Amino acid sequence: MDSCRFLILFLAILCGGLRTSASGAEESNPPNIIYILLDDAGYGDLSCYGQEHFQTPNMDSLAETGMKFLQHYSGSTVCAPTRCSLMTGKHTGHCVVRGNREVKPEGQAPMPADTVTIPRLLKKAGYVTGMFGKWGLGAPGSTSDPTEHFDVFYGYNCQREAHTYYPEHLWSNNEMVELDGKTYAHDLIVEQTLKFIRDHRDEPFFLYVPVTIPHAAMHVPAESHDPFRKVFPEFEEVEGEYAGTTVTNPVAAFAGMMTRLDDQVGDLLELVRELGLEEETLIMLSSDNGPHKEGGHKPDFFDSNGPLRGHKRDLYEGGIRAPLLASWKGKIPAGKVSSQISAHWDMLPTFCDLAGVDVPSDVDGISLKEELMGNPDKQQPHEYLYWEFSERGRSQAARKGDWKAVRNNLKANPDAHIELYNLSEDLGEEIDLSSQEPDVVKEMSAILKDAHVPSATFPLFDSEASGK
């Protein structure tokens, strides 16, 4: 044990901070936590979830050395509300950010200054916190600028700026880092991510890495793009345009983006091993919502949503079911597959539980610690999961057990029909059972009503927008 970690342990003992189990046995120190969030990667975009057009061996290794979740969900079906749900532990019926809302000249509308987030809570346990990637929850200098939450920040503040991988600038804490518009910003973000691990190897850290791959623009350097142009020559006449840039053979570019990211995940895993941190570090990887259809990306060709219906901006399974991989050497049983129903808003209570921090009473998430540690019989289940989306005609969805309810077009009809699906028998949500199961519809209708707290900023019904 190095001197710094010894000092932390010694101080914990002096202060009575060393936690014990019910039997009185000492528990291990709280882990470092690395949480990687992909941007618009679908449920089927990793080879361990069925992707066959390219391979993601490094990301897959997290499943081999740890646990793969089959019934995990994103906080929302688009960027900002997912990130708010993740950071605050609340579903979109309760969290303050429920859609994408820009402010000028750069950034998204901020969360309130007193918003409780994962990094703010983990700091109470002595964690140093770092974020590298896309924020989207508060413009530069606002009440929820990322530096108001994290000790170290590097990346895109604004989601709109992140539409290009070749931006004019990024942010390093509160300083604008000017770029030439020709530098692949994702690589700079990865470099700073690895630097953070090296810099803080001797103290407990929380590292949040919301990368931009494979969001919208199919931008990737030639060394990653060109090999797949030979694999997919049938798309050489196809062009994809996004963020003012046209890409030839965006299908090859998508595969190049995903494999480039996979190589970089491999670099991160190797660094953790090299520094001797494997047994002290929980590593998790997920995605913010389902696959997109922009920039020439062809999710149907890649079967990006696997057997699921819908894509990004839908509340069907394809828009919100997400991969989740978790690895922690010596703690999480290797090669396990979990059917635990879970969501992004579970991360806050899970991380607090592992760090020994009290969980706020108003969160919607549950701690997944028992499931992760291989004790599924002790794992608390969700009563239900809930989503709402104020764009695209407005919609709601809820899941309770195997039942899934979806309501669309609430703007046009506040009493829109509730579709009902049995996911254990109909994962593709093809057969609406609402007419056959009136009692279940009644139960799900109550959830859709009770889980929603009105928001004038992101109204689900016109009466909320007008303040009635």
Automatic annotation (TrEMBL):
Highest taxon listed in the record's lineage: Bacteria
Record EC number: 3.1.6.1
Signal peptide positions on this chain: 1-24
InterPro entries (UniProt xref): Alkaline_phosphatase_core_sf, Sulfatase, Sulfatase_N
Keywords tagged on the record: Hydrolase, Signal
CDD domains: ARS_like
GO molecular function: arylsulfatase activity
Residue stretches making up the Sulfatase N-terminal domain: 31-357
Family listed: Belongs to the sulfatase family.
Name the UniProt record assigns to this protein: Arylsulfatase
Taxonomic source organism: Thalassoglobus neptunius
Gene: atsA_38
